[in-house]
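Morning. Coffee machine broken again, so started the prediction first thing and wrote up yesterday's gels while waiting. Chain of 251 residues, entered below exactly as on the submission form.
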Amino acid sequence: MTSSLLQIEKYKRGLMFDPRTKLFMVLTLAVFGIGGAGGESVNKVLPFVLLLPYPLLFLSGKWQWGLFGVVAYAGSDQFMHYVSPLLSGVPAFVALGSCAILNRFLPSILMAAYLMATTTVSEFTAAMQRMHVSEKITIPLSVMFRFFPTVVDEAASIGSAMRMRDIRLGGTNMAHALEYRMVPLMTCCVKIGEELSAAALTRGLGGEVKRTNICKIGFKVQDYIALAVCAIPWVLLVVDLFQGGIGGVFL
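Came back before lunch.
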């Protein structure tokens, strides 16, 4: 594993947010985007909340992720409004389902990817300590923060090695493409998990003595703005809860 996988360089992270702010943004998009909580008042502001990941991805230098998300989100929205009403039967069902997944799931996934790509393990651990979260939750999540980026890097390396041997989809050895990619990747996943678990314990996670942290975190102006934007659907959810009852809010 290279050093870039263990520590994120600050100049690549764009607008700096506190890890707790990013966790709250992920929670908000998951509850209202994927979960579909809230009534009509929440649905009016939800499209603006679901757009949060895209400017953050652009500012952090993740142009490919941001561009893919914008094109997929805008394309699915236009397709659902203008093309889907012209369809019927199974094609209409498949089209509506695909568009709903892109509109609801994709922003939450991209926000989680932004969180993992722009947050170091030290920052995340410091944030968990500030919130007094148990180490039984902090340690697995800390390992997960570095596990997925490392697996993606290993998968890219395996893919490059397979392409050099002409083992690819559409190549001469297409039948072996899945086997030759998945077996090394699964082996790497096991090794990566063991190495990252050992690294977490070496850093002092799980010890009896309270772990110190030199990482500085704190709320800034951009954090308060992001928290205020994400708080809007929560406030509207509470209002809907009191007006229409629990059944009407989560339908």
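DSSP finds ten helices and no strands in the chain. Going to sketch it on the whiteboard this afternoon.
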